[in-house]
Amino acid sequence: MGHASLSTKIDSYFLSIGLGFNPAALRKARLREIILLETASDAELADMGLDRDGILPHVFRDLLA
Questions:
Q1: Which residues form the domain of 17?
Q2: Are 35 and 43 a contacting pair, CB within 8 Å?
Q3: Cα separations in angstroms, 50 against 20, 23, 26, 32, 41
Q4: How far apart are the C-alpha atoms of 3 and 22, rounded to whole Å?
């Protein structure tokens, strides 16, 4: 996944949960984890109890707690 695609995916996620803004500091702080998960295989994600659609909710789960 390219950087532009990942950026769009993160923006869409924040919009979908109603934040309506792009918290750049949060994105920057968690980008490494997002990239690591995005580059994992589907089997590796499944071992962690995740699928591709669950990556961003997992990484930003504390925002919704």
A1: 3-63
A2: no
A3: 25, 24, 21, 17, 11
A4: 16
Q: What is the pLDDT of residues 7-62, one digit of tens each?
A: 888 888 888 877 666 677 787 889 999 999 999 999 999 999 999 999 999 998 88
**Token pair 């995916």 is at which residue?**
9
- The DSSP result for the chain, as a single string, is --HHHHHHHHHHHHHHTT--S--HHHHHHHHHHHHHHHTS-HHHHHHTT--GGGHHHHHTGGG--
pLDDT at 65: 59
Cα–Cα dist 10/6, whole Å = 6
Counting the structural domains of the chain, the total is 1
